Amino acid sequence: MEALSQYLKEQLQLPEVEAHALLRYWQKPKSLKRNDFLTRQGQVENHLYYIRQGTLGIFYDIEENEQVVGFGYADTLICSFPSFIRNHPSDYYIQALGATELIGISRSDFYRLLDEYPRIEHLWRQMLEEALLGRIEREIDLLTISPRERIQRLLNRSPHIFQLIPNKYIASYLRMTPETLSRNMRQP
Q1: pLDDT digit string, tens, across residues 2-53
Q2: 111 CB contacts (<8 Å, ≥6 apart)?
Q3: 120, 21 Cβ separation under 8 angstroms
Q4: Which of 15, 96, 149, 156 has its CA 20 to 30 Å from the CA of residue 181?
């Protein structure tokens, strides 16, 4: 809980009262081994998770091909956001890429806190806005720039990804083969 407390207070800059309110409800610890599912396709996402340690991939099947659409790693939040927000079955699945430790808050508790604490609601809205902007940038990247430029933009935005995530998943995320990723990473 110490890491989550620091995350809420330092990274999210939540005042003490709101941070303590949130901490009270993060009650669902979860341990995953490599390839374990956090969320399965078709499951309704009932929890928002804070990743204590480890890495996860967010996958979407396109015509029976597994496509990486995002990642989760230590000190970030993760869930199938469309399912969590709409309370509908998930189109995505989230799977551990290695041993992962998480702690979760239920959807009902989280939304109750949003109603009770305007500062938490404001911060949640800001996080969703940033996530939306990131998704729009990613779509533009995938539609308009070369593989080499996609790699460089990811390196500029999130260089740590290349230390945490196996290249085959990064290649899928960037919509290229692992060979194309490798070749472009070697070029000066």
Answers
A1: 777 787 777 778 888 888 888 899 888 999 999 999 999 999 999 999 999 9
A2: none
A3: yes
A4: 96
Residue 121: left if φ>0, alpha if ψ -120 to 50, beta else—which one? Answer: alpha
Under 8 Å CB-to-CB from 9, ≥6 apart: which residues?
16, 19
Classified as helix, coil or strand, 54 is coil
Q: What is the pTM for the complete model shown?
A: 0.88
Contact assessment for residue 53 and residue 121, using Cβ atoms and an 8 Å cutoff:
no
DSSP-based three-state secondary structure for 13: coil
Per-residue pLDDT reduced to its tens digit, 151-168: 988 888 889 999 999 999
CA-based angle 58:47:77, to the nearest 5?
Answer: 55
Whether the CB-CB separation of 36 and 61 falls below 8 Å is answered with no
Element (H, E) at 71: strand 65-73
The C-alpha atoms of residue 173 and residue 7 are separated, in whole angstroms, by 26
CATH fold of 2-116 reads Jelly Rolls (2.60.120)
Residue 167 φ then ψ, to 5°: -60, -30
For residue 93, the cross-strand partners are: 59
